[in-house]
ABC transporter
Amino acid sequence: MHELRRIVGFLGPYRRDAILGMLLVVIESAFEMVIPILMADIIDVGVATRDLDFIFRQGVLMLVCAALSLITGQLYARHAARATYGLGARLRAAEYEHVQEMSFANLDHFETSSLITRMTTDVTVIQNALNAGFRPMVRGPVMLVIGFGLAFYLNMQLALVFVGVSPFMIVALALIVRHVGPLYGVLQTTVDKLNDVVQEMLTAVRAVKAYVREDYECAQFRAVNEGLARTSEQTFKFAVLNMPVLYVSLYTATTLIMWFGGQMILGGELQVGELTGFLSYVMQILNSFIMISNVFLLLTRSLASIHRICEVLDEPVDLVSPEAPITEVADGSVEFRDVSFKYRADAAENALEHVNLSIPAGSTVGVLGGTGSGKTTLVQLIPRLYDASEGSVLVGGRDVRSYDLEALRNAVSIVLQKNVLFSGTVRENLCWGNPKATTEDLLEACRRARVDEFLDRLPGGLEYDLGQGGVNVSGGQKQRLCIARALLKRPRVLIFDDSTSAVDTATDADIRASLAALTGVTKIIIAQRVSSVADADQIVVLDDGRVHAVGTHAELLASDSIYQEIYASQTHGPKGDGVKRGHQAAPGNAGWVKTNPSQKGQAAPENAEWVKTNPSHNGSEGGER
Ligand SMILES: Nc1ncnc2c1ncn2[C@@H]1O[C@H](COP(=O)(O)OP(=O)(O)OP(=O)(O)O)[C@@H](O)[C@H]1O
């Protein structure tokens, strides 16, 4: 119930329309309900006494009531539509804005497809329920009360006959609603699943085609689609039972009333007009029961949607700026003080264990480690995409939790592993980094990120449309555009999470050289290739969430077993003795995995071996994906 009230609270300025709409329905119903009484009078008084004047006057009154009922009905429809669609728009906006505020950890709680369903289908369900249910929701109870009142007024005994039938109807309807309610929740979850399959397939449609998995995807879709059809069938099979229940009640009541009414007319206790008027009220009362039961069914379905929407709206944003935040980041120094981190409070293992690191402002740091060793996790703590579970992360000498989030994230620019560009031109995408950037600024960032190498070839240059998700450029070009976008923020700390994996080694070196010229900016580079970090001031080797070693290329090459292994395997294959043969460029985009990974939280075994992970997936040397 409190969720229903919460959603009603979103009416905002449309509350006036909702209230006006309700009033109009009450007036409309009242006018309509007077008509049978006027009709009964025409039969019992006008026709019985052959008083044409009376019949005419009552007829005109009936017409006026019908016309007023029609006008108020029309006015109601206008206000109801405004309230309904206004509420839908406000709900979608509230959900969308809340999702924007959510942290990565918050977003981990929801499937993307489920969020889409909650912002679209669930809101539509509420809209439809309100649109179709608003009128009967008000009209049903109003007609029920007035109908019963007037039925008792016309004939008490007949009204009691009718009252006798009602409990059966009420109990049967309550049972149907109780059974159908939970099924609606299941139905919405099934819609989630369908959206999930469709979204995943559309996002990965190129991979589907490349791997010739169309049949498999179709089978997946068919299974979920048929599941949805089955669930809908099951749900509506029960929902439609309300109609037979109501009609059985209607005809039983009508038959009984005709029988009793007929006896009463024969006994001279009732007039024909009275019985006709009474039967009209019986119809109206039963109609109002039909309306109320339909509203209950609609409401039951929308309650499931309301709950799902409230789950999004009530998700507490766990990363917010503090009360009195610091708005200036003094410098680009970064420090990890005994930091441990787990993605979920109930996770058995930490993704990072007791990490201690000190990165001076303006220095360049490389981060190496096997797949899943915690590299991405480590850097995501710097702009506070997640908060450390234990210990603290400092930027510019202050705990990241003491900064204004926006100020911190403006000072720490991260090029995520999964590069994302948006629909729009190159210029629009780059301006994400700095909306005020001039064309000169954009071209300068493009030069540094080596975007200039292909920008001329894009029709329109900066005005070239990248298409949805940047489909109109290659993987390597996308990475370079993302680097340029990050540079435009003019950050104090620049983080590259494997951001040059899809560019050729020569361009990678070029980009590194131009970044080296950015003095005063701390650069943290996660890379698979030793060559990408060999020139760094210090290199951090991660292993199973722990810092295995820190040092320069020469120091690590001389002392660290994991670094030696990585280096050797990249220069001469997994078992090579590359230590002695000097540094060479690593193969294009090879990824490296340890073949006998140690248990999480334990130091890496000395004999750990690193192997190349399917380099063919990453493109050939010197090329771009
Ligand atoms: N959102 C998440 N929720 C739960 N666990 C996660 C999440 N992201 C990563 N992990 C887990 O945390 C660990 C470290 O992952 P992380 O992405 O930091 O590794 P990585 O070194 O960057 O790997 P890669 O080189 O493959 O990108 C892994 O065991 C991974 O499965």
